[in-house]
Write a structure and sequence with these properties.
This protein is α+β, with helices and mostly antiparallel strands. Among the domains are: about 90 residues, no CATH class; about 90 residues, Immunoglobulin-like, CATH 2.60.40.10. Helices cover about 35% and strands about 15% of the residues. The protein has eight helices and nine strands. Helix 1 crosses helix 2 and helix 4 packs across helix 5. The two termini are about 40 Å apart.
Length: about 280
């Protein structure tokens, strides 16, 4: 079943562009076949609630005759995907002009080739009409000998005493780029993934981001609905009475850092359960 869904997704003519955080066809196929674990399944549900590109993939499955087990997809996402299929305009094919564009391009290519050939012949005629004696008596260019520099001998500190070979230097520029990109993504410190927390002890904390102007904290239900959203300049937040949270329910939290460059970086989605005590 999963391989058939993946094959259908590969046959779809995709509209738009896939985002950096979008799941691939394998993950979407496993999501429809309900073969992902709880945290991965919830993360894909949350991503589909905010990504029209991936939702169009799901919409393609809803209109395919070979797709089965679509009742396992959450009903709000399935309803939204079918709305996309119903609203998407069907492109009209003008068979009369189907071959017009290739024919015009082929004629233009021939004309361009003719112009290039005529220009080359004109330049050859002009070069042959010049004085041949002056061309024969032109001095040969003086070429300076190429200077070959010997490689620098390694310093004693750069030689491995065990192997007597030069030490390999780590690629520090790649490490700096990797560290700088990861420093712009907020990392949730609390709650931990899968933790069970009492309502009065619920506190959301994350690592600070250097270029962040402010943070946006969102709590989502298992169906992807936003039950709490608030902006703050701090790196911790207590929802308190402002969030109508139900004990014994599973929730998801995500923190978005709004940077000075106008970009937004999201943290990974963390799930937790609100205990009834």
């Amino acid at each position: 079943m999963e391989s058939e869904i993946k094959k259908l997704l590969g046959m779809q003519k995709q509209s738009g562009a896939r985002g950096r955080h979008c799941p691939d066809e394998t993950q979407l196929a496993a999501f429809v076949a309900k073969r992902l674990d709880r945290s991965a399944h919830a993360a894909v549900e949350f991503h589909l609630a905010d990504c029209d590109f991936c939702l169009s993939q799901l919409a393609f499955l809803t209109q395919s005759d070979d797709a089965e087990n679509l009742d396992q997809v959450p009903f709000p996402l399935l309803l939204r995907a079918r709305d996309i299929v119903a609203k998407a305009p069907k492109p009209a094919v003008n068979w009369g002009w189907r071959w017009a564009a290739p024919l015009v391009a082929f004629v233009c290519l021939i004309l361009l080739a003719v112009i290039v050939v005529l220009q080359l012949r004109t330049r050859e005629t002009a070069s042959l009409s010049g004085p041949l004696i002056a061309q024969q008596n032109q001095p040969l260019p003086i070429t300076s000998p190429e200077i070959v520099r010997a490689p620098r001998a390694p310093l004693p500190s750069e030689i491995n005493p065990l192997t007597a070979a030069p030490r390999t230097q780590p690629n520090r520029s790649a490490q700096v780029r990797s560290n700088s990109s990861e420093a712009l993504i907020p990392k949730l410190l609390a709650p931990q993934e899968g933790a069970s927390i009492r309502a009065k002890d619920l506190e959301l904390r994350w690592q600070p981001v250097a270029d962040a102007l402010f943070y946006e904290v969102r709590l989502l239900s298992g169906t992807g609905d936003i039950v709490f959203s608030q902006q703050t300049e701090n790196t911790s937040l207590k929802p308190g009475t402002g969030a109508a949270l139900v004990p014994g329910t599973k929730y998801f939290v995500v923190v978005s850092a709004h940077l000075r460059q106008g970009k937004t970086q999201k943290s990974t989605v963390v799930s937790f359960r609100l205990s009834g005590q």
